[in-house]
Amino acid sequence: MQTHDDSQPIPExxxxxxxMAERIPRRDxxxxxxxxxxxxxxxxxxxxxxGSSLYPKTTGVSKLKYCLNTSTIHGEVIPIxxxxxxxxxxxxxxxxxxxxxVDKYTSAGGTLxxxxxxxxxxxxxxxxxxxxxxxxxxxxxxxxxxLEQAKKEMExxxxxxxxxxxxxxxxxxxxxxLNLDVAGQRxxxxxxxxxxxxxxxxxxxxxxxxxxxxxxxxLHVAAAAQHPDACVLPDVxxxxxxxxxxxxxxxxxxxxxxxxxxxxxxxMVRDKISDADRVYPGDGIAPIGEILKTVxxxxxxGVLSLELFNREYWxxxxxxxxxxxxxxxxxxxxxxN
Length: 337
Hints:
Blueprint: H1 12-22, H2 26-43, H3 46-49, E1 65-69, H4 80-90, E2 94-98, H5 99-107, H6 112-121, E3 125-130, H7 140-159, E4 164-167, H8 180-197, E5 200-204, H9 215-224, E6 232-233, H10 236-241, E7 259-262, H11 288-297, E8 303-306, H12 311-314, H13 318-331
Parallel strand pairs: 1-2, 1-8, 2-3, 4-5, 5-6, 7-8
Helix pairs in contact: 2-9, 4-13, 7-8, 8-9
Protein backbone atom coordinates (compact mmCIF):
# COMPACT_ATOMS: atom_id res chain seq x y z
CA MET A 1 0.00 0.00 0.00
CA GLN A 2 1.47 3.33 -0.98
CA THR A 3 1.54 6.23 1.45
CA HIS A 4 0.90 9.95 1.10
CA ASP A 5 3.38 12.00 -0.95
CA ASP A 6 4.71 14.53 1.56
CA SER A 7 5.70 16.95 -1.20
CA GLN A 8 2.05 17.89 -1.73
CA PRO A 9 0.27 20.03 0.91
CA ILE A 10 -2.88 18.52 2.37
CA PRO A 11 -5.90 20.79 2.94
CA GLU A 12 -6.83 21.28 6.60
CA UNK A 13 -10.21 19.68 5.97
CA UNK A 14 -8.49 16.60 4.59
CA UNK A 15 -6.11 16.47 7.57
CA UNK A 16 -9.14 16.36 9.84
CA UNK A 17 -10.60 13.55 7.78
CA UNK A 18 -7.30 11.65 7.91
CA UNK A 19 -7.10 11.98 11.70
CA MET A 20 -10.63 10.63 11.97
CA ALA A 21 -9.77 7.79 9.58
CA GLU A 22 -6.86 6.73 11.81
CA ARG A 23 -9.40 5.99 14.53
CA ILE A 24 -11.65 3.95 12.27
CA PRO A 25 -10.92 0.30 11.41
CA ARG A 26 -9.89 -0.07 7.75
CA ARG A 27 -12.78 -2.42 7.02
CA ASP A 28 -15.22 0.36 7.93
CA UNK A 29 -13.68 3.11 5.80
CA UNK A 30 -15.52 2.25 2.61
CA UNK A 31 -18.86 2.43 4.39
CA UNK A 32 -17.90 5.82 5.82
CA UNK A 33 -16.83 7.03 2.38
CA UNK A 34 -20.06 5.94 0.75
CA UNK A 35 -22.04 7.81 3.35
CA UNK A 36 -19.84 10.85 2.84
CA UNK A 37 -20.69 10.94 -0.85
CA UNK A 38 -24.38 11.00 -0.08
CA UNK A 39 -23.87 13.69 2.57
CA UNK A 40 -21.68 15.74 0.24
CA UNK A 41 -24.40 15.66 -2.38
CA UNK A 42 -26.86 17.26 0.02
CA UNK A 43 -24.37 19.82 1.31
CA UNK A 44 -23.20 20.81 -2.16
CA UNK A 45 -26.58 21.04 -3.84
CA UNK A 46 -26.09 24.79 -4.08
CA UNK A 47 -23.85 24.25 -7.08
CA UNK A 48 -26.71 22.87 -9.10
CA UNK A 49 -29.09 25.57 -7.84
CA UNK A 50 -26.69 28.12 -9.30
CA GLY A 51 -27.29 26.66 -12.73
CA SER A 52 -24.06 24.75 -13.41
CA SER A 53 -24.23 23.41 -16.97
CA LEU A 54 -21.87 20.55 -16.15
CA TYR A 55 -24.63 18.58 -14.43
CA PRO A 56 -27.95 17.59 -16.06
CA LYS A 57 -30.97 19.54 -14.86
CA THR A 58 -32.82 17.82 -12.04
CA THR A 59 -36.07 19.77 -11.99
CA GLY A 60 -39.31 18.72 -13.63
CA VAL A 61 -40.16 15.36 -15.18
CA SER A 62 -37.22 13.07 -15.84
CA LYS A 63 -36.23 13.07 -19.51
CA LEU A 64 -33.16 10.98 -20.16
CA LYS A 65 -30.87 11.68 -23.10
CA TYR A 66 -29.66 8.90 -25.37
CA CYS A 67 -26.04 9.00 -26.44
CA LEU A 68 -23.84 6.95 -28.78
CA ASN A 69 -20.37 6.14 -27.54
CA THR A 70 -18.59 5.64 -30.84
CA SER A 71 -16.74 2.50 -29.72
CA THR A 72 -20.10 0.79 -30.36
CA ILE A 73 -19.69 1.25 -34.12
CA HIS A 74 -15.92 0.68 -34.07
CA GLY A 75 -15.13 4.36 -34.20
CA GLU A 76 -11.42 3.60 -34.33
CA VAL A 77 -11.78 2.73 -38.03
CA ILE A 78 -14.66 5.08 -38.90
CA PRO A 79 -13.79 8.76 -39.53
CA ILE A 80 -15.24 11.02 -36.88
CA UNK A 81 -17.36 13.00 -39.34
CA UNK A 82 -19.01 9.72 -40.33
CA UNK A 83 -19.50 8.89 -36.65
CA UNK A 84 -21.47 12.12 -36.25
CA UNK A 85 -23.59 11.37 -39.31
CA UNK A 86 -24.36 7.85 -38.10
CA UNK A 87 -25.42 9.08 -34.65
CA UNK A 88 -27.71 11.65 -36.27
CA UNK A 89 -29.32 9.22 -38.71
CA UNK A 90 -29.84 6.59 -36.01
CA UNK A 91 -31.78 9.09 -33.89
CA UNK A 92 -29.50 9.74 -30.91
CA UNK A 93 -29.66 12.94 -28.89
CA UNK A 94 -25.94 13.12 -28.35
CA UNK A 95 -22.55 11.60 -28.97
CA UNK A 96 -19.62 10.46 -26.81
CA UNK A 97 -16.38 10.56 -28.77
CA UNK A 98 -12.84 9.26 -28.34
CA UNK A 99 -10.17 11.95 -28.54
CA UNK A 100 -7.90 9.59 -30.49
CA UNK A 101 -10.37 9.98 -33.37
CA VAL A 102 -10.26 13.76 -33.05
CA ASP A 103 -6.46 13.59 -33.26
CA LYS A 104 -6.72 11.65 -36.53
CA TYR A 105 -9.15 14.24 -37.89
CA THR A 106 -6.99 17.25 -37.01
CA SER A 107 -3.80 15.50 -38.17
CA ALA A 108 -5.44 15.14 -41.59
CA GLY A 109 -6.17 18.87 -41.74
CA GLY A 110 -9.56 19.10 -40.03
CA THR A 111 -10.29 21.86 -37.53
CA LEU A 112 -12.02 21.74 -34.17
CA UNK A 113 -14.24 24.64 -35.24
CA UNK A 114 -15.53 22.71 -38.26
CA UNK A 115 -16.07 19.54 -36.23
CA UNK A 116 -17.99 21.47 -33.59
CA UNK A 117 -20.22 22.94 -36.30
CA UNK A 118 -20.80 19.49 -37.81
CA UNK A 119 -21.92 18.12 -34.44
CA UNK A 120 -24.20 21.09 -33.83
CA UNK A 121 -25.65 21.04 -37.35
CA UNK A 122 -26.49 17.37 -36.83
CA UNK A 123 -28.67 18.36 -33.87
CA UNK A 124 -26.41 16.51 -31.46
CA UNK A 125 -24.74 17.52 -28.23
CA UNK A 126 -21.29 16.35 -27.20
CA UNK A 127 -22.02 14.94 -23.75
CA UNK A 128 -18.70 13.30 -22.97
CA UNK A 129 -15.33 12.26 -24.35
CA UNK A 130 -12.93 9.39 -23.72
CA UNK A 131 -9.24 9.94 -23.01
CA UNK A 132 -6.64 8.40 -20.73
CA UNK A 133 -4.49 10.94 -18.93
CA UNK A 134 -2.99 9.02 -15.93
CA UNK A 135 -4.07 11.65 -13.39
CA UNK A 136 -4.30 9.11 -10.56
CA UNK A 137 -0.57 8.35 -10.37
CA UNK A 138 0.84 8.71 -6.86
CA UNK A 139 4.22 10.07 -7.96
CA UNK A 140 3.80 13.84 -7.83
CA UNK A 141 5.93 14.65 -10.89
CA UNK A 142 4.10 12.03 -12.97
CA UNK A 143 0.79 13.37 -11.67
CA UNK A 144 1.66 16.94 -12.67
CA UNK A 145 2.65 15.77 -16.15
CA UNK A 146 -0.64 13.88 -16.42
CA LEU A 147 -2.54 17.04 -15.47
CA GLU A 148 -0.84 18.87 -18.34
CA GLN A 149 -2.10 16.15 -20.67
CA ALA A 150 -5.57 16.27 -19.12
CA LYS A 151 -5.72 20.06 -19.55
CA LYS A 152 -5.04 19.77 -23.28
CA GLU A 153 -7.64 17.05 -23.61
CA MET A 154 -10.29 18.99 -21.72
CA GLU A 155 -9.57 22.10 -23.76
CA UNK A 156 -10.26 20.09 -26.92
CA UNK A 157 -13.57 18.88 -25.47
CA UNK A 158 -14.61 22.44 -24.62
CA UNK A 159 -13.54 23.69 -28.08
CA UNK A 160 -15.90 21.09 -29.55
CA UNK A 161 -18.79 22.28 -27.42
CA UNK A 162 -18.49 19.50 -24.86
CA UNK A 163 -18.46 19.78 -21.09
CA UNK A 164 -17.43 16.42 -19.62
CA UNK A 165 -14.66 13.84 -19.91
CA UNK A 166 -14.21 10.35 -18.49
CA UNK A 167 -11.62 9.99 -15.73
CA UNK A 168 -10.75 6.28 -15.45
CA UNK A 169 -7.83 4.96 -13.38
CA UNK A 170 -5.49 4.91 -16.38
CA UNK A 171 -1.94 4.23 -15.26
CA UNK A 172 -3.06 2.24 -12.23
CA UNK A 173 -4.59 -0.79 -13.93
CA UNK A 174 -1.71 -2.93 -12.68
CA UNK A 175 0.92 -2.57 -9.97
CA UNK A 176 0.43 -1.69 -6.32
CA UNK A 177 -2.89 -0.94 -4.67
CA LEU A 178 -3.28 2.80 -4.32
CA ASN A 179 -3.95 4.64 -1.11
CA LEU A 180 -7.53 5.74 -1.76
CA ASP A 181 -7.15 8.93 0.25
CA VAL A 182 -4.18 9.97 -1.88
CA ALA A 183 -6.19 9.03 -4.98
CA GLY A 184 -8.86 11.39 -3.67
CA GLN A 185 -6.30 14.20 -3.53
CA ARG A 186 -5.32 13.46 -7.12
CA UNK A 187 -8.95 13.52 -8.20
CA UNK A 188 -9.46 16.83 -6.40
CA UNK A 189 -6.57 18.33 -8.37
CA UNK A 190 -8.15 17.05 -11.60
CA UNK A 191 -11.51 18.53 -10.61
CA UNK A 192 -9.92 21.91 -9.90
CA UNK A 193 -8.26 21.79 -13.30
CA UNK A 194 -11.56 20.87 -14.92
CA UNK A 195 -13.27 23.78 -13.22
CA UNK A 196 -10.68 26.19 -14.62
CA UNK A 197 -11.17 24.80 -18.14
CA UNK A 198 -14.94 24.31 -17.97
CA UNK A 199 -14.93 20.52 -18.35
CA UNK A 200 -16.10 18.04 -15.71
CA UNK A 201 -13.94 14.91 -15.18
CA UNK A 202 -16.18 11.98 -14.19
CA UNK A 203 -14.62 9.31 -11.98
CA UNK A 204 -15.03 6.05 -13.88
CA UNK A 205 -15.29 2.49 -12.59
CA UNK A 206 -12.99 0.05 -14.42
CA UNK A 207 -13.87 -3.52 -13.51
CA UNK A 208 -10.70 -5.05 -14.98
CA UNK A 209 -8.37 -2.66 -13.14
CA UNK A 210 -6.49 -3.44 -9.94
CA UNK A 211 -7.56 -0.01 -8.70
CA UNK A 212 -11.07 1.52 -8.81
CA UNK A 213 -12.55 -1.76 -10.00
CA UNK A 214 -15.39 -1.57 -7.49
CA UNK A 215 -18.04 1.04 -6.82
CA UNK A 216 -16.99 1.10 -3.15
CA UNK A 217 -13.49 2.25 -4.13
CA UNK A 218 -14.83 4.90 -6.47
CA LEU A 219 -17.17 6.22 -3.78
CA HIS A 220 -14.24 6.43 -1.36
CA VAL A 221 -12.10 8.41 -3.82
CA ALA A 222 -15.00 10.71 -4.73
CA ALA A 223 -15.62 11.46 -1.06
CA ALA A 224 -11.91 11.83 -0.28
CA ALA A 225 -11.63 14.48 -3.00
CA GLN A 226 -13.82 16.74 -0.83
CA HIS A 227 -14.88 18.74 -3.87
CA PRO A 228 -18.40 19.82 -4.88
CA ASP A 229 -17.85 18.72 -8.49
CA ALA A 230 -16.98 15.11 -7.59
CA CYS A 231 -19.11 12.68 -9.57
CA VAL A 232 -19.16 9.12 -10.86
CA LEU A 233 -19.36 7.50 -14.30
CA PRO A 234 -20.83 3.99 -13.77
CA ASP A 235 -20.92 1.25 -16.39
CA VAL A 236 -23.15 -1.84 -16.25
CA UNK A 237 -20.43 -4.18 -17.53
CA UNK A 238 -17.66 -2.74 -15.37
CA UNK A 239 -19.77 -2.94 -12.22
CA UNK A 240 -20.29 -6.65 -12.91
CA UNK A 241 -16.68 -7.30 -13.98
CA UNK A 242 -15.29 -5.72 -10.81
CA UNK A 243 -17.66 -7.53 -8.46
CA UNK A 244 -19.76 -4.56 -7.34
CA UNK A 245 -23.27 -5.05 -6.02
CA UNK A 246 -25.75 -3.17 -8.19
CA UNK A 247 -27.86 -2.40 -5.13
CA UNK A 248 -25.03 -0.22 -3.85
CA UNK A 249 -25.86 2.34 -6.54
CA UNK A 250 -28.51 3.37 -4.04
CA UNK A 251 -25.70 4.82 -1.91
CA UNK A 252 -24.96 7.33 -4.65
CA UNK A 253 -27.24 10.28 -5.34
CA UNK A 254 -28.39 10.15 -8.94
CA UNK A 255 -27.53 13.82 -9.37
CA UNK A 256 -23.88 12.77 -9.09
CA UNK A 257 -24.15 10.59 -12.21
CA UNK A 258 -24.01 12.89 -15.26
CA UNK A 259 -23.48 9.96 -17.66
CA UNK A 260 -24.19 6.23 -17.30
CA UNK A 261 -22.52 3.78 -19.70
CA UNK A 262 -25.12 1.35 -20.98
CA UNK A 263 -24.49 -2.23 -22.07
CA UNK A 264 -25.29 -5.78 -21.01
CA UNK A 265 -23.35 -9.01 -20.60
CA UNK A 266 -23.97 -12.72 -21.22
CA UNK A 267 -23.96 -15.42 -18.56
CA MET A 268 -20.18 -15.59 -18.06
CA VAL A 269 -18.02 -15.66 -14.94
CA ARG A 270 -16.29 -12.41 -14.06
CA ASP A 271 -12.73 -13.59 -14.55
CA LYS A 272 -13.47 -14.77 -18.09
CA ILE A 273 -15.66 -11.96 -19.42
CA SER A 274 -14.07 -9.12 -21.40
CA ASP A 275 -15.03 -5.86 -23.10
CA ALA A 276 -15.66 -7.71 -26.36
CA ASP A 277 -18.41 -9.78 -24.69
CA ARG A 278 -20.66 -6.80 -24.04
CA VAL A 279 -24.05 -7.05 -25.74
CA TYR A 280 -26.98 -4.74 -26.40
CA PRO A 281 -28.99 -3.74 -23.32
CA GLY A 282 -31.64 -6.37 -22.66
CA ASP A 283 -29.82 -9.11 -24.55
CA GLY A 284 -27.86 -10.29 -21.51
CA ILE A 285 -28.52 -11.10 -17.87
CA ALA A 286 -27.85 -7.75 -16.20
CA PRO A 287 -30.75 -6.41 -14.07
CA ILE A 288 -30.79 -3.18 -16.08
CA GLY A 289 -34.38 -2.29 -15.30
CA GLU A 290 -33.71 -2.42 -11.57
CA ILE A 291 -30.42 -0.55 -11.99
CA LEU A 292 -32.16 2.32 -13.77
CA LYS A 293 -35.03 2.39 -11.28
CA THR A 294 -32.50 2.72 -8.47
CA VAL A 295 -30.58 5.65 -9.95
CA UNK A 296 -33.67 7.42 -11.29
CA UNK A 297 -35.30 7.18 -7.87
CA UNK A 298 -32.24 8.87 -6.37
CA UNK A 299 -32.33 11.76 -8.85
CA UNK A 300 -30.60 10.59 -12.02
CA UNK A 301 -31.78 12.64 -14.98
CA GLY A 302 -28.73 12.46 -17.17
CA VAL A 303 -27.28 10.73 -20.20
CA LEU A 304 -27.44 7.05 -21.11
CA SER A 305 -24.47 6.35 -23.37
CA LEU A 306 -24.33 3.07 -25.29
CA GLU A 307 -20.76 1.74 -25.04
CA LEU A 308 -20.01 -1.62 -26.64
CA PHE A 309 -16.94 -3.33 -28.09
CA ASN A 310 -18.62 -6.34 -29.64
CA ARG A 311 -16.67 -7.64 -32.67
CA GLU A 312 -19.77 -9.26 -34.14
CA TYR A 313 -21.61 -5.93 -34.04
CA TRP A 314 -18.63 -4.28 -35.75
CA UNK A 315 -19.26 -6.58 -38.72
CA UNK A 316 -22.71 -5.03 -39.19
CA UNK A 317 -23.39 -1.89 -41.17
CA UNK A 318 -22.50 0.86 -38.65
CA UNK A 319 -25.85 2.62 -39.04
CA UNK A 320 -27.72 -0.65 -38.48
CA UNK A 321 -25.60 -1.34 -35.40
CA UNK A 322 -26.25 2.13 -33.96
CA UNK A 323 -29.97 1.99 -34.75
CA UNK A 324 -30.47 -1.42 -33.17
CA UNK A 325 -28.45 -0.32 -30.15
CA UNK A 326 -30.64 2.73 -29.58
CA UNK A 327 -33.83 0.67 -29.88
CA UNK A 328 -32.50 -1.90 -27.42
CA UNK A 329 -31.39 0.80 -24.98
CA UNK A 330 -34.77 2.50 -25.01
CA UNK A 331 -36.53 -0.83 -24.48
CA UNK A 332 -34.96 -1.33 -21.04
CA UNK A 333 -35.67 2.17 -19.69
CA UNK A 334 -38.56 2.27 -17.20
CA UNK A 335 -41.79 3.71 -18.67
CA UNK A 336 -42.09 7.46 -18.34
CA ASN A 337 -38.40 8.18 -18.70
